[in-house]
Every structure is written in C-alpha cells, then in structure tokens.
C-alpha cells in the first residue's frame, strides 16, 4: 500500500471516518490515477469489482474526501467535475480536443492572490490556473 494512501487513511481515521472497502477502492483509485477522473469514470472503472456500488456512493465518498482535504474538485465547463488527489501546489494543462488533464509544476503564484486581494478587497483563499491546447495524442491525430 502506498504511503499516500496510508497517510490518507490515517487522516480519515482521525476525523472518525470508517474505512470501508468501497471507500478504500475509491481513494486508491484517485491516488493512483493520473487522469483526473470524473464521478462517472470512477464508477465505470470500479463497478466490476464493486457491482453493488452506486454513483451516489461515489459522490458521498468524494464529499468525505473533499471535507478531509484529501482531494480537490476541478469543476470545468463541461459540467462534469474532475477529482485530483495530488494536493501539492501544481497546475493543469487541458486538451481542448479530448479533455485530457495533465499536471505540471510551476512556482506557486501567491503574488497573484496578494494583488487580487489588494485590488478587490477580497479575502483570497486560493486560485487555480489552467492552460489549454492540444495534447500529444490529439496533435498526432490532427497532423494526419
């Protein structure tokens, strides 16, 4: 079992959340996934091992993980939120064609939060940056 999953399980335990087999499967899936899955993708990929697990179960568990600070929700314009268990400061590159999302490292832009706060009077708590373009696969497809 990965250290990230063990850490997440410990964090849930401290908040009084019991680790069920479904919860463990969803959490493991998110930690191991690099594709920032939607609820439907999580359901589709796990239903073979958990035929009694519903989409509602996944939503409810994601809510628990969000509240515990174990995942972040990435709401996008297509109406389907994506979920990311990588909680370090990072940004996302998103394919305008297929919707693939990839993480990339860049120094956190905390100065943007400070400027936004000063200019608007908002108490800024976070920010999100995305860049859009064509992933390698879609570039190859469009060249043919």
Automatic annotation (TrEMBL):
What name does the UniProt record give this protein?
A: Fur family transcriptional regulator
Query: Cross-referenced PANTHER family, in alphabetical order?
Result: PEROXIDE-RESPONSIVE REPRESSOR PERR, ZINC UPTAKE REGULATION PROTEIN
Per UniProt, which keywords does this protein have? DNA-binding, Repressor, Transcription, Transcription regulation, Zinc
Pfam families in alphabetical order = FUR (PF01475)
Which CDD domains does UniProt cross-reference here?
Fur_like
UniProt cross-references to InterPro entries, sorted A to Z: FUR, Fur_C, WH-like_DNA-bd_sf, WH_DNA-bd_sf
Record family assignment: Belongs to the Fur family.
């Amino acid at each position: 079992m990965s250290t990230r999953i063990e850490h997440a399980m410990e964090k849930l335990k401290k908040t009084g959340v019991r680790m069920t087999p479904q919860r463990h499967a969803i959490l493991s899936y998110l930690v191991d996934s690099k594709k920032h899955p939607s609820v439907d993708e999580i359901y589709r990929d796990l239903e073979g091992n958990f035929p009694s697990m519903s989409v509602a179960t996944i939503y409810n568990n994601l809510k628990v993980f969000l509240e515990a600070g174990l995942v972040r929700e990435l709401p996008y314009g297509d109406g389907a939120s994506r979920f990311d268990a990588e909680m370090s400061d990072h940004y996302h590159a998103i394919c305008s064609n297929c919707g693939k999302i990839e993480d990339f490292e860049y120094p956190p832009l905390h100065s943007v939060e400070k400027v936004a706060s000063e200019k608007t009077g908002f108490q800024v708590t976070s920010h999100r940056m995305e860049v859009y373009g064509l992933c390698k696969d879609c570039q190859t497809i469009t060249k043919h």
